[in-house]
Design brief:
Radius of gyration: 20 Å
Bound molecules: 1-O-phosphono-alpha-D-ribofuranose, uracil
Structural class: alpha/beta
Distance between the termini: 20 Å
Number of strands: 15
Order of helices and strands: EEEHEEEHEEEHHEEHEHEHEHE
Number of helices: 8
Strand content: 25-35%
Helix content: 25-40%
């Protein structure tokens, strides 16, 4: 960390760069694709106009921001790593440097909970709920009776939160219109498919809270997959970020509504709309896992589709403030 930061509540440098993502106004577009993986971020940016970003920065904390245009419309790709806490850094710090409405789409990998969605299926969820490890369940002071009576459960399952319906529909339409052709050495020779209107679960671990069994740890999760299916019938995918993205967007939008209800100036001049595209990398029904070549095929297809969908959604001029310096 080289630059001098001030304000312990929300640290920023003299030019407004944030502490972890380390971008400032003019470097992040109103339309953002967020991914876990920097290789995927560069693959998507290869589809920008001119084949390259106009602005590129990898922060000391490993948040990579690539900003360019697609069909002339500014879009940023931000690679954030994995898990709930990095979504919090990303959403809050990008919100702080982007004026006006934001549309944020997460383009990530996931595990499949539905036998009919195998590797080669891409899912567009309409809603997402959270699954968190309940640390007190595992605490040494918790009694066997508290555990067996159900007073404390090992995993907490939240209510679902919706994605934006226009963003959902635009993503699905863009994916459907540009599917790669079948190839005998990919996806067992089957065609890829995009499926909408599904429900996602975001877990706070790839392992325990996604029901993976690891004898090296006490995880109390041998029936977790069944419990998730019972409580949220139809759940299609498991990954690690979408729920927190939807939650933070709702929290930001509620803050604007509250300010307006109290005749106060809103904290920001535009709301946050969210969507997600999830590529199945792990089939939890069969134990199959994606190959590197299949991964690249899905990432190129979905990356271009999400860029096209985002560029095609209009943000009215009065809700777009200050988009476009990129330096
Ligand atoms: C775990 O392997 C990671 O993959 C998924 C999960 O949400 C988690 O971040 O998404 P990404 O491929 O975008 O990282
Ligand atoms: N990402 C996840 O979080 N889970 C999976 O099973 C695959 C990718």
């Amino acid at each position: 960390m080289k630059d001098v930061l001030s304000n312990a509540n929300f640290p920023q440098d003299a030019q407004g760069r944030t502490y972890h993502v380390a971008t400032k106004a003019g470097q992040v577009a109103n339309r953002i694709i967020t991914v876990g993986d920097q290789v995927r971020a560069h693959r998507i940016a290869a589809s920008f106009d001119g084949g390259a970003p106009l602005f590129s920065f990898n922060s000391q904390r490993n948040f990579l921001t690539l900003t360019g245009t697609y069909n002339g419309v500014p879009v940023s790709v931000v690679a954030i790593g994995m898990g709930f806490s990095v979504v919090d850094f990303f959403v809050r710090e990008c919100r702080a440097v982007v004026e006006g409405e934001m549309i944020i789409v997460r383009l990530g990998s996931c595990g499949s909970m539905q036998p009919e969605y195998g590797i080669g299926t891409v899912v567009v969820p309409k809603a997402s709920f959270g699954i968190s490890r309940n640390y007190d369940y595992f605490h040494h002071s918790t009694t066997a009776e508290e555990r067996s009576s159900g007073a404390l459960e090992p995993y907490l399952i939240t209510k679902p939160l919706d994605a934006d319906s226009e963003v959902h529909d635009a993503l699905l339409a863009a994916l459907d219109s540009s599917k790669p052709s079948p190839s005998s050495n990919l996806f067992d020779g089957s065609s890829v498919q995009a499926v909408g209107d599904t429900v996602n679960a975001s877990a706070d671990s790839f392992y325990g809270s996604q029901g993976r069994i690891d004898p090296a740890f006490i995880d109390a999760n041998s029936n977790l997959i069944d419990v998730i299916r019972q409580r949220r019938p139809g759940v299609a995918t498991l990954e690690m970020e979408t729920f927190v993205l939807n939650h933070l967007a709702a929290a930001a939008n509620d803050a604007i509504d509250l300010a307006e209800a109290n005749a106060q100036p809103p904290p920001h001049k535009g709301k946050i709309r969210t969507g997600a595209v999830q590529m199945i990398f792990a089939n939890r029904n069969t134990s199959a896992f994606i190959t590197p070549q299949e991964c690249e095929t899905l990432e190129r297809w979905t990356g271009k589709s999400v860029l096209a969908a985002l560029a095609g959604i209009t943000i009215p001029e009065e809700r777009l403030h200050g988009d476009g310096v990129w330096n």
